[in-house]
Specification:
two-stranded antiparallel ribbon; 3-stranded mixed sheet; mainly alpha; 5 strands; binds zinc ion
């Protein structure tokens, strides 16, 4: 069994002391295609950290549902049946790797899938902005206030920084599962995905509220740094591979998402529920 007790590095302003209100062992499914392959993880946290973990789990679950909803309203369910002859859209099912001798048709399929994942993330993030806005609502409980604010009061910028770090961790987990299961998916790299979702959330929230970008960026670097340290600890992130060349490759992937969106934006137009 692996112990996943509260880490002082994550949200360090929340104390670690006090009675463990969550003290249990849960069987985690490692492979969504083999439900009986499980590993027991121990969970042990005090009241405030348990509350924060619950909110973060809700946030990630909500994003997953909204991302899938994004696929539906973009018409991807019908699209995959049409373009890939009866295949089902599945987040974790293997897709063929890009082979050296890949055909033009094969490459197009991979690129179309990437464009669809980008679009589902965009829809998911647009809807998630409402959830994030509610978390930073001043009429919240004392527990909400302790997790999402600092001494100065309710902070939309801090809430948004916690959300971005939590989603980044979730994307690393998804990528880590794929890698450990030797599966491939069409999701962008966690850094690319995290930045893309962050940009959409900022844009959406800035339409409704005042977002101080300087304050947000400072909070984001703090929350991301501590999250990355924790992810490195549990081997879901390996910074040894992050060279300057890798950084440039991520930039290229980021830019290519825009091109892929433009190329494939009409691919499911006949099944889409809205106009771009
Ligand atoms: Zn998806």
């Amino acid at each position: 069994m692996r112990d996943h007790v509260a880490r002082s590095g994550i949200l360090p302003y929340l104390d670690l002391d006090g009675e463990a209100v969550a003290n249990c062992e849960l069987p985690f499914i490692l492979d969504p295609e083999a439900f009986d392959r499980r590993v027991n993880w121990g969970i042990k946290t005090n009241a405030i950290r348990s509350f924060a973990a619950g909110i973060i789990a809700d946030l990630c679950n909500t994003f997953v549902v909204l991302h899938e909803f994004g696929h539906i309203i973009c018409g991807h369910i019908e699209g995959i049946r049409y373009y890939e002859e009866g295949k089902k859209l599945s987040e974790l099912v293997c897709r063929p790797r890009k082979r050296l001798n890949a055909t033009t048709r094969h490459i197009e399929t991979l690129e179309r899938r990437k464009a669809w994942e980008r679009d589902a993330d965009m829809i998911g993030a647009i809807f998630l902005a409402q959830f994030v806005g509610n978390l930073a609502n001043p009429i919240l409980t004392e527990q909400h206030t302790r997790v999402f604010t600092d001494a100065k009061g309710v902070e939309l910028e801090h809430t948004l920084a916690i959300v971005v770090a939590a989603l980044f961790a979730f994307f690393c987990y998804v990528q880590g599962s794929h890698r450990k299961l030797h599966k491939e998916s069409s999701h962008p790299h966690p850094f690319v995905r995290g930045l893309f979702v962050k940009d959409i959330l900022v844009k959406e929230l800035a339409r409704r509220k005042n977002v101080n970008m300087k304050k947000f960026n400072a909070f984001m670097m703090e929350r991301l740094d501590e999250m990355m340290d924790a992810l490195i600890d549990i081997e879901l992130l390996d910074m040894r591979t992050y060279s300057a060349a890798h950084h440039r490759a991520l930039e290229r992937e980021r830019n290519s998402l825009k091109t892929l969106h433009a190329t494939f934006k009409e691919s499911c137009a006949r099944w889409r529920w809205f106009e771009w």
